């Protein structure tokens, strides 16, 4: 006889068993005014979601519109809820899940680029190897001395990750990354 008591099922804790977290790139067009970014980000922190990358810039000066690009990871149904809630914030004009629109486009996912500035200190063979690898990755030297280099590299986030990991044993000192800038493929605008 089984005497264990099962707690009542709550709708708040029901998630499909086979659902896995997914990386999503969201593009949010907003009015460029104080407090908008805090409201948008508050939706993510309120649900306990981390933002892996965040870029914000005014894109249409005459209309005072800014684009917020957010890369996050979560369960698809929760991301859909976040998108719906973002759409209801008054200064938000449009929310597009660039990752989802990729399924409809024959060329694949969104175009994503990131800029990084990477400082590497080294001498002798390590210095020569750092320069050789930077050339392979198409990183530009933007500052140098006899003891260090500062490289500028652009590309997909995975390319930046690989470059940084390769530079680590060669004398990596510091890294600064901009975050992902992304657009959907095709002729349609956001």
Notes on the structure:
With 190 residues, the protein is α+β, with helices and mostly antiparallel strands. It has helices at residues 36-46, 76-88, 98-101, 125-136, 157-167; strands at 22-31, 51-60, 65-74, 92-97, 111-121, 140-144, 148-155, 172-177, 181-183. Strands 5, 6, 7, 8 and 9 form a five-stranded antiparallel sheet that branches. The protein is elongated, with a radius of gyration of 22 Å.
Question: Which tags fit this structure?
Answer:
190 residues; alpha+beta; Alpha-Beta Plaits; 4-stranded antiparallel beta sheet; 5 helices; 27% helix; elongated
Give a brief outline of the structure.
The chain is an alpha+beta fold. It has 5 helices and 9 strands. It folds into 2 domains: 19-104, 2-Layer Sandwich (Alpha-Beta Plaits); 111-182, ACT-like. Chain A, domain 2 (Alpha-Beta Plaits).
């Amino acid at each position: 006889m089984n005497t264990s008591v099962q707690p009542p099922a709550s709708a708040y804790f029901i998630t499909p068993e086979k659902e896995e977290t997914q990386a999503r790139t969201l593009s949010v067009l907003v009015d460029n005014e104080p407090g908008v970014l805090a409201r948008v980000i508050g939706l993510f922190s309120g649900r306990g979601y981390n933002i892996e990358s965040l870029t914000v810039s005014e894109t249409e000066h005459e209309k005072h519109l800014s684009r917020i690009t957010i890369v996050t990871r979560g369960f698809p149904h929760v991301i859909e809820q976040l998108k719906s809630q973002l759409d209801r914030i008054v200064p938000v004009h449009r929310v597009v899940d660039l990752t989802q629109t990729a399924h409809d486009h024959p060329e694949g996912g969104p175009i994503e680029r990131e800029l990084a500035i990477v400082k590497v200190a080294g001498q002798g063979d390590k210095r020569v190897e750092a320069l050789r690898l930077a050339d392979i990755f198409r990183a530009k030297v933007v500052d140098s001395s006899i003891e260090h280099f500062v490289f500028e590299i652009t590309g997909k986030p995975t390319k930046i990750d690989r470059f940084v990991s390769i530079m680590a044993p060669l004398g990596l000192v510091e890294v600064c990354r901009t975050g992902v800038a992304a657009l959907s493929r095709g002729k349609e605008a956001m």
